Amino acid sequence: MSRSRAAPILLALLIAASGVSFLRAEQLKLQHSALQHPHVKQAFSPTCSGPRCHRQAVLEFTLGKAQAVGMKIVDADGNTVRSLTDGNVQAPKGKVTAHWDGRDDGGTIVPDGRYRLAVTLGGDDRTITIPSPILVDTQGPSVAITRVDRTPKHVVVHFLPSEGRAATFQRIERDGKLIDEHPTRRGLSKFSLRNRDPGTYVLSIFAVDHAGNETPDPPTVRVKVP
To answer: What is the pLDDT of residue 33?
Structure first.
């Protein structure tokens, strides 16, 4: 292997090793501190407005004893983007819950990416960064219709979402009114023509990602029932 190719590979390995070492160090801190059982809702979207949205991060941990606690959100480089509390807030023993709306200290929504909760315990006089990431994701998944099969009894829509793990749904409207909305099979949606009132139906296929973002402009298929 040439030196020109070996250098980038070595750098990538060093970065990966540093990340693993950081996470392991934080896990060891947790094992020897009064802070236990950390849990974060790992994905949310501060800008979405649909009924399935996760609009804020829910941050939880358990304190083994009452003490002063400081909490802040840090980015991938460890820089503080939002101070949730200072170190003078007294928290009781037991479960502690905080929320983050995805904004920095200036009130601006932060860029999409991974963030973490850093907790300062007054009794231990040290900061513990919770290893589990908080994912800010404001971009909705797209959906592409790949094929439409029509028979006398059914219309079958084949589609492909941009995010493989996104949940997919079919929305049915007639004369501008919502008739039905339900989950679909992955990559396949079927509309029955039987027992339908005459009129023009519009089928919309949309996806919802793990943060609750919906497809912003879902593709549609028009079906006319005589």
So the answer is: 55
Chain centroid, CA 205 distance in Å: 20
Q: Encode pLDDT of 193-215 as tens digits.
A: 988 999 999 999 999 999 999 99
Q: Among 63, 47, 56, 45, which Cα is nearest to 84's? A: 56
| pLDDT above 90: percentage of residues in the chain | 59
Q: Which domains does the chain have, with CATH numbers?
A: 9-136 (2.60.40.4070), 143-225 (2.60.40.10)
